[in-house]
Specification:
Elements: H1 10-13, H2 19-27, E1 34-35, H3 47-58, H4 71-85, E2 94-98, H5 99-109, E3 117-122, H6 127-134, E4 138-143, H7 154-160, E5 165-171, H8 183-196, E6 199-203, E7 229-234, E8 246-251, H9 253-266, H10 272-283, H11 287-307, E9 314-315, E10 323-327, H12 335-346, E11 348-349, E12 351-352, E13 363-367, H13 372-388
Parallel strand pairs: 1-11, 3-4, 3-5, 5-6, 6-7
Antiparallel strand pairs: 2-8, 7-8, 9-10, 10-13, 12-13
Helix pairs in contact: 3-10, 4-10, 5-6, 7-8, 11-13
Bound molecules: pyridoxal-5'-phosphate.
Length: about 400
């Protein structure tokens, strides 16, 4: 009998390619390009956090540790978020993960079965699509538009719900949009979750990167009795720790408990010394976070001041994150072609909006977690492109 199994699984063979990565690879051929592509802080990890990681290695915290995370870190995260959300969060509600990426994996693993639908904002972080695809789920896009100040609306989510909806994935503050959802929409989405029996997976990795004029609300804060949520967090952005790969997911114990079993079969556990550094991040001085956020806020102003006067470009002031979502529609090129021309003709690397979904067409994402000099040089090049057109 002939085995008809494909050599490569259909899931792997059809995994959606990331245009962010494609642009990143293209930019490698332009080593001198000014790069506004990377979504990570330009700060180094604060010294006291690095020191705690080094101490962890020195006292031999280099063996396997608990699947769900070391007790000290689960407790520290629980303490921090009980305070922020003003609701009871215990260590049993916390799963430590390899970055928010693996937190997303866990959240989808415990809520989504093959054939289920997952509602995803468009545009959004492209890995959402890939993760849903990996589980055999069907992503259902809900457009988020400039008319709504780039905020996901509950009524649009409502329109996309079917009896196959297993989860709604939200991301406030948003990458790439820089927007923060309104509390009223979060409340309505929580009501919809209860009415229709789906889970709200809320990616909140930018929860502390919010500027003075905006108010961020977590899905965990909308009502103390709402428990059909999984809130995803990370040390990557808040504490400039992208390479440490430390994230977490918080939710009710019945969701969290199976994640430890899943972790055993995935990576076993996050290194203990990394987790010690994460404890130091939470227990140590928080002014390091405040000063990084203040610096992003200044650079946001510079970005807004420089972009908006450029003929054909417009930028709604981002309320949070370190991303500028620039409307380039008047330039009349699709975003991939525009990003390619900016790179090839002006040595400027950006991310085309279409990388974040079809509704991202007509936009470019520019990271402002770069020096003011870099922002100025990049904007000079955008001006030069505008002048050449
Ligand atoms: C919206 C969003 N979610 C999750 C992540 C992944 O973060 P981590 O480094 O914690 O895996 C990112 C990173 O860019 C992000 O922008």
């Amino acid at each position: 009998m002939t085995n008809t199994h494909p050599r490569i699984s259909p899931m792997a063979a059809t995994y959606p390619a990331s245009s962010i990565r494609k642009m990143f690879n293209l930019a490698l051929d332009f080593p001198d390009a000014v790069k506004l592509t990377v979504g990570e802080p330009d700060f180094n990890t604060p010294e006291h956090i690095k020191a705690a990681g080094i101490r962890g290695i020195e006292h031999d915290n280099t063996r396997y540790v608990a699947n769900a995370g070391i007790p000290e870190l689960r407790a520290a995260i629980a303490r921090k978020y009980s305070g922020r959300w003003n609701r009871g969060v215990g260590p049993e509600n916390v799963m430590v993960s390899f970055g928010a990426m693996e937190a997303l994996t866990f959240a989808l693993d415990v809520t989504v079965s093959p054939g289920d639908e997952v509602i995803i904002p468009d545009p959004s972080f492209p890995n959402y699509m890939g993760q849903v695809h990996r589980l055999g789920g069907s992503p259902v896009s809900v457009p988020v538009t400039e008319d709504n100040d780039f905020k996901l609306r509950a009524e649009d989510v409502r329109a996309a719900i079917t009896d196959r909806t297993a989860a709604v994935l939200i991301n406030s503050p948003s990458n790439p949009l820089g927007s923060v959802m309104d509390q009223a929409d979060l409340e309505q989405i929580a009501d919809l979750a209860e009415e229709h029996g789906f889970t709200v997976i809320s990616d909140e990795v930018y929860d502390e990167m919010v500027f003075d004029d905006a108010v961020f609300t977590s899905i965990a804060e909308v009502r103390p009795d709402f428990d059909r949520y999984l809130a995803i967090g990370s040390f990557s952005k808040t504490y400039a720790m992208t390479g440490w790969r430390c994230g977490f997911v918080i939710g009710s114990e019945d969701f969290i408990a199976p994640m430890a079993l899943l972790q055993e079969g995935l990576t076993s556990s996050l290194p203990g010394f990394v987790q010690e550094a994460a404890v130091a991040a939470i227990d140590g001085p928080q002014d390091v976070v405040a000063s990084m956020v203040a610096s992003y806020a200044e650079r946001r102003e510079l970005m807004v001041e420089r972009i908006n006067p450029i003929d054909g470009l417009s930028l709604l002031r981002p309320a949070a994150t370190f991303y500028a979502w620039v409307n380039v529609k008047d330039w009349g090129l699709n975003s991939w072609d525009l990003a390619t021309q900016l790179l090839e003709k002006h040595n400027l690397a950006t991310i085309p909006g279409s990388a974040f979904g079809p509704a991202g067409e007509g936009y470019l994402r520019l990271t402002f977690a770069v020096s003011p000099e870099t922002i100025n040089t990049a904007c000079d090049r955008l001006e030069a492109f505008a002048a050449d057109r």
